[in-house]
Amino acid sequence: MSALLFAQLEGAGPAIIVSCSLAVLGIVGFFFVSYFAHCFLTVVIDSAAGVDEIRFPSESIVDWMTKPVYLLWVVLPLLFIPCLTLAFGGGAVAFLVTLLVLLWLVSPIMFLSSLAAKSWMSLFYGPFLKRWARFFFAYVVFLIWSGLLTALGTALLVAALWSLKGVVVAMIALPAVFLLYFRVLGRYAWYVTTRRMRRPKKRQVNPAKGLKVESLDPWAAPPAETTTPAEPRHDEPADSADSVNETESTAMRDKFAPAETSYKLAPADSPVAGRPKLAPADQPRTRSGGEGGKLAAADEPIAPAAMPAVEDEWTPNKKPYGVMTEQQARQSWVERTGTPGDSDGYGVETMSLGPPVSLWHYYEERHKQEEELREQGKAVRQYERPRKPPTLWQAMTKEIWGFLIYGHTLRTWINLAILFGVELTLLNLIAHMTGLLFGR
Description:
It is a single chain. The chain is mostly helical. It has a domain at 2-70 and 126-195 and 366-439. The protein contains 14 helices and no strands. It has helices at 2-48, 66-75, 80-87, 92-105, 107-117, 126-134, 136-162, 164-194, 241-256, 259-265, 326-331, 359-375, 392-398, 407-439. Helix 7 (136-162) packs antiparallel against helix 8. The longest helix is centred in the first third of the chain and has 47 residues, at 2-48.
């Protein structure tokens, strides 16, 4: 009797440990899945927008609850084919292999399609599928990246279930593997959605052989109105119609010619039509009204040196403009105050102009404002310039590894490492306790 009791107590210990571990695994797993989905969507969306340093907004756990539901909604249709494989005689191994292949090949297209369409229902978005087919080589590069990262993550999970040393290694390396996968997926979306699509060339339809095509020139004169110029007659007088027309054309040409050209063509001593004759420079001028014999002091000729030098506004050789430095501007600044006793004004007498604004202080203040917005979790993309479309090397290789060393990414790495460590430790404990229960 005592032997049966001790045998039951020997099996009850591992069962209690497994039950408690499953309960803790479910509680911690809820926070882990919510935070994991939050990191996935943040990294993918910001990386697809071309942002180099990912900044995770400080949202509450309530804001994360819909994100795991969205991930499950996208992945749920992929279970249809593995379930058919299991129903038609395939085992658990075939089910898992089919599910992993679909997650590797199809799930990225479904996620990016729904994110591009901004709708949960658009799992296969037409405009994105056109770009996916156009830049298929980039998708092959992404599959190579994701295949290597998936294989490495699977090996770390198996090692974590096998021993506690594997748990320590996996809790450090698995967050980096998943963050790199999110980054590669976002950079692939950045490359595909920003590259310019070439328009297909329109094919010109050649006419059938032997088919006569008539063309009509709308500006051509009709055949009935075509005339030939008449030959000049030698017996006509000199003042014929041709000479009259030539004289009229010459007069019209002189009429519409520029004034400067007509002045240049006219002799210096002969007056030009419409222009008064100029007096010599040394001849004194008189006033237009009053005594005609007296000289006017105001009408004396002005020396060329006294006239201000006026720059031609159309000349390409402009004089350089002087630019004052910040120190010179501060030294030359004089405080200007309003007129005292202005009863009708709006306080202008107390207004004063401050010194020139320093650009260095302006950009420093704007940088502080951006940092405050980032700390509050608000978007500051309106201050950032949009980036140019990347090359394949830049999107899929150059800007992948440096993403892990930023401060916000390191903080997320530590949080994921703690959650991974708790979850993997519980899974390792459950696996060992289950082995003790069924292996004795």
